[in-house]
Amino acid sequence: MLAVVALCCALAASDGPAMRIAAARHLGGAYFPDETAKGYGLTSVEQAVVDGRPVARLTFLNKAKSDCFDLIEFVPAEGKSIANGWEQIVASKSVSASPLPTDTLVLSRKKGLDVVFLAGSFSSGTANRLVSRLVWQPGD
Questions:
Q1: Please, what are the domains in the chain?
Q2: Residue 131: phi, psi to the nearest 5?
Q3: How confident is the model at residue 104, as a pLDDT?
Q4: Cis peptide before 138 (omega within 30 of 0)
Q5: Is the pLDDT of residue 41 over 80?
Q6: Can you tell me the distance from the alpha carbon of 8 to that of 109, in angstroms, rounded to the nearest whole number?
Q7: Would you tell me how many other CB atoms lie within 10 Å of the CB of residue 132?
């Protein structure tokens, strides 16, 4: 049985980096050290537990462009690849993330945390650059 805990925070872009860092530190995961990508700000955080592992979905919105992207962060299952963990999360339907075939998907693992970048209007190169700018917890 999946234990699901949803936490939705409305964080305005004007709250700045300190609010995003505080939210990410609370989740114990990765965060952007600044305003991310040209006007995108963290607007919602959703948490769930899938097979005893915490999962967080962070949505970043650019209000001027009416465009967004998601970061899904989760602790990897022992012996499983990021792709396997991601498939398990999508199948569980515990987090509102259902990728379309046309979406850009970037998978990254660092310091015991898996991060999935998911967006419809980003190139793979831009998505990879954004993921490379993440600051990772713990140990930074």
A1: 13-132 (3.30.200.100)
A2: -65, -35
A3: 92
A4: yes
A5: no
A6: 25
A7: 9
